Amino acid sequence: EFPAGPYELNVNAQDKADADRLLKSIPAAPEPFVIALHMGCHQISKKGQRFLYKLFPFLMTKDTRSWSFKRFDQLVQRLLTQHPAVHIVLTGSSSEAFAADALTAHPHILNLIGKTNVGQLAAVLQRCQLLLTGDTGPMHVACAVDRPMVLLCGKTDPAQTGPYPMHSHHSIIRKDGMDNISVDEVYQAVVRYLPEASTKRAAVATPSTVA
Q1: In this structure, what is the dihedral angle of CA atoms 181, 208, 160, 45, given to the nearest 10 degrees?
Q2: Is residue 5 included in any domain, yes or no?
Q3: In the chain, what percentage of residues exceed pLDDT 70?
Q4: pLDDT, position 3
Q5: CATH number for the domain harbouring residue 193
Q6: Cα distance between residue 177 and residue 40, in whole Å
């Protein structure tokens, strides 16, 4: 069942102070464009996945909600190279700490994986201009604090899983499988939100779905 109304999440003063502390390495000038990136849904590392597959092949299915680390890395490096104002904030649970190792090191990448609770994450997202994610818990947190997002969907149906409620600042890229989503189309979706892009954020009038 759909919820009766929008999500509500109260961010207290301590959460906001913690977010300021966590994000203090991002300079205030020149004005940064901060993108929260939640790679998510990778519940076990590659080594662990191979080990479990050997033991229980009938239990292991391909994660249809996850975009590959390689493509995330290609996207991030392209954004950071071509848009110097962009800063990337990595979010995630402590069990996903290994995910940060998949990205090429860069001074504009801030790793907060495993360093926030829900309230702190909400406060961090409030200070970001955009969330890039798949069908993850932080997607719902971003909805609760009304953040713009680019959502990557494979087999999951956003009409069933969210974002809820849908807003004009939500862009959805949906394909029949996450492997069918290209780096270029995600890049193009993200740069539409950047102030220096030819298409301004305000021009994103309706949620965009790439079929």
Answers
A1: 30
A2: no
A3: 78
A4: 57
A5: 3.40.50.2000
A6: 16
Residue 178 per-residue DSSP state: G
Rounded distance between C-alpha atoms, residue 112 and residue 1, angstroms = 33
Q: Is residue 8 part of a domain?
A: no
Question: For 176-179, which contacts have Cβ atoms below 8 Å and span 24 or more sequence positions?
Answer: 177/64, 178/64, 178/65, 178/66, 178/67, 178/68, 178/134, 178/152, 178/154, 179/68, 179/154
Q: Give residue-wise pLDDT tens across range 120-138.
A: 999 999 999 999 999 888 9
Q: What DSSP line would sit under 77-128, residue for residue? A: HHHHHH-TTEEEEE---GGGGGGGGGSPP-TTEEE-TTS--HHHHHHHHHT-
The three-class DSSP label of residue 60 is coil
What mean pLDDT, rounded, does the chain reach?
83
Amino acid at residue number 167: H
74 occurs within a structural domain: yes
Average pLDDT over residues 194-204: 52
- Residue 56 belongs to what domain range? 13-210
Q: Looking at the domain assignment, is residue 6 inside a domain?
A: no
DSSP state letter for 179: G
Q: Give, in order, the Cα–Cα distances in Å from 12 to each of 103, 138, 175.
A: 32, 18, 38
Cα-Cα-Cα-Cα dihedral sign, residues 144, 145, 148, 153: negative
pLDDT, tens digit, for every residue of 4-28?
A: 667 788 899 999 999 999 999 999 9
The total number of structural domains that make up the chain: 1
pLDDT-derived band of residue 45, with 50, 70 and 90 as boundaries? very low
